[in-house]
Amino acid sequence: MYDQGEQQGPAAPEHHVVLAERGPFIAPRCSCGWSGPARRSRPLARAEAAAHIAHPG
């Protein structure tokens, strides 16, 4: 998972998640095409990204 270009932890080679900032919101996006909803809560966005990496689907 990445946060503003910095790696936060190991990810499966086919899943590279970035947290994209949009004003006061942050949205997780994955290289596989998955994207989560924009959130104001960084911890919630990170948790959703981690859940996607753990259980891609």
Q: What is the radius of gyration?
A: 10 Å
Reading the helices and strands in chain order gives EEEEH
Which overall shape is indicated by the principal axes computed on the Cα atoms?
Answer: globular
Strand content: 25-35%
Structural class by sheet pairing and helices: alpha+beta
Instruction: State the major sheet.
Output: 4 strands, mixed
Helix share, percent: 10-25%
Give the spatial strand order of the biggest sheet. 2-1-3-4
Total count of helical runs of at least 4 residues: 1
Distance between the termini: 16 Å
The overall pLDDT, averaged over residues, is 83
Low-pLDDT regions: none
Secondary-structure map with pairings?
Blueprint: E1 2-3, E2 6-7, E3 17-22, E4 25-30, H1 42-54
Parallel strand pairs: 1-3
Antiparallel strand pairs: 1-2, 3-4
Summarize the structure.
It is built from 1 helix and 4 strands, in the order E-E-E-E-H.
Key attributes of the depicted protein:
1 helix, alpha+beta, 57 residues, 28% strand, four-stranded mixed β-sheet, 4 strands
Explain this structure.
This protein starts with a strand and ends with a helix. The model has no long low-confidence stretch (mean pLDDT 83). With 57 residues, it is an alpha+beta fold. The chain has a four-stranded mixed beta sheet with strand order 2-1-3-4, with helices on one face. β1 and β2 (6-7) form a beta hairpin. It has one domain. It contains one helix and four strands. The chain has one helix at residues 42-54; strands spanning 2-3, 6-7, 17-22, 25-30.
